[in-house]
């Protein structure tokens, strides 16, 4: 298996059908083995609206679709982690489950990742964001604060569209909300990170599960924790067996 697409979802019954089909179409356009050897993993994170039933109904139609389920809501980071642990691919692609990330951008990220073995992660940077003015303002504030504290050079850590090496992810310490700090932590382990402009779309259906205030309160604690992790890391070590 070359590539595993991992998508955590919660209460997205109206969005998963169109999104699964768009991902399958994007993967079919990849060159050679990438198109032939991929899987699509959706993690239903405790949905109460029939999301996992809608996903199961798509399995006969979509080759390589796998459906995982948390019996209760554990959060986006745990959903990503469950998908990565279950994945068979050496490369992971993540997207948000609301349809705002365009799967057609996946080949651009994979091309950059595959061009250089020193690159551990390629992150999308959303252009012409389709969020509300208050959410864009909160995002600018959060990205600016995080960048000053962590020095990760990221302008848009909130973009769910990322491609990374599975081994790089498995090197990271796990904690809830890890997905917001992947760039800083992947760099902490000695990998290089690249950024690619990607499109952004209005939500297909339903409502966002996050609030600006909720994100801010959680991020302050997490920022301090990640800063501590950066300071307590001795640098990437090479090991030679004698």
Give structural notes.
The protein is an alpha/beta fold and 242 residues long. The chain has a single domain (3-231), classed as Spore Coat Polysaccharide Biosynthesis Protein SpsA, Chain A, CATH 3.90.550. The chain contains nine helices and seven strands, in the order βααβαβαβαβαβααβα. It has helices at residues 16-28, 32-36, 51-58, 76-86, 106-114, 133-150, 166-170, 182-188, 212-231, and strands spanning 3-9, 38-45, 65-70, 91-94, 119-126, 162-165, 192-198. A seven-stranded mixed sheet has the order 3-2-1-4-6-5-7, sandwiched between helices. α3 (51-58) links the parallel β2 and β3 (65-70). It is globular and about 50 Å long.
In the CATH hierarchy, the architecture is Alpha-Beta Complex
Put simply, the count of helices is 9
Order of helices and strands: EHHEHEHEHEHEHHEH
Name given to the CATH homologous superfamily: Spore Coat Polysaccharide Biosynthesis Protein SpsA, Chain A
Please state the CA-atom Rg, rounded to the nearest Å.
17 Å
Tally of distinct domains = 1
Helix content: 25-40%
CATH class: Alpha Beta
Beta-strand portion reads: 15-25%
* CATH-defined topology: Spore Coat Polysaccharide Biosynthesis Protein SpsA, Chain A
Question: Which stretches are low in confidence, meaning pLDDT under 50 for 5 or more residues running?
Answer: none
Shape: globular
Outline of the structure:
The protein has 242 residues and is an alpha/beta fold. The chain contains 9 helices and 7 strands. The chain has a single domain (3-231), classed as Spore Coat Polysaccharide Biosynthesis Protein SpsA, Chain A.
């Amino acid at each position: 298996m070359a590539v595993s697409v991992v998508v955590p979802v919660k209460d997205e019954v109206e969005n998963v059908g169109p999104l699964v089909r768009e991902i399958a179409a994007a993967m079919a356009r990849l060159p050679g083995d990438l198109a032939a050897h991929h899987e699509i993993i959706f993690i239903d994170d405790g949905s109460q609206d029939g999301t996992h039933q809608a996903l199961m109904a798509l399995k006969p139609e979509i080759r390589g679709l796998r459906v995982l389920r948390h019996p209760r809501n554990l959060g986006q980071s745990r959903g990503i982690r469950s998908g990565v642990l279950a994945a068979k691919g050496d490369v992971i692609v993540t997207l948000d489950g609301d349809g705002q990330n365009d799967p057609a951008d996946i080949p651009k990220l994979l091309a950059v990742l595959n061009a250089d073995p020193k690159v551990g992660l390629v992150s999308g940077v959303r252009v012409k964001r389709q969020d509300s003015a208050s959410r864009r303002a909160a995002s600018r504030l959060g990205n600016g604060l995080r960048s000053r504290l962590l020095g990760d050079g990221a302008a848009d850590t909130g973009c769910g569209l990322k491609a990374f090496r599975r081994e790089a992810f498995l090197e990271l310490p796990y904690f809830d909300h890890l997905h917001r700090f992947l760039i800083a932590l992947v760099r902490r382990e000695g990998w290089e990170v690249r950024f690619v402009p990607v499109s952004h779309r209005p939500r297909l259906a339903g409502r966002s599960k996050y609030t600006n205030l909720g994100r801010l309160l959680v991020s302050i604690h997490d920022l301090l924790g990640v800063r501590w992790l950066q300071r307590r890391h001795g640098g990437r070590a090479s090991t030679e067996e004698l």
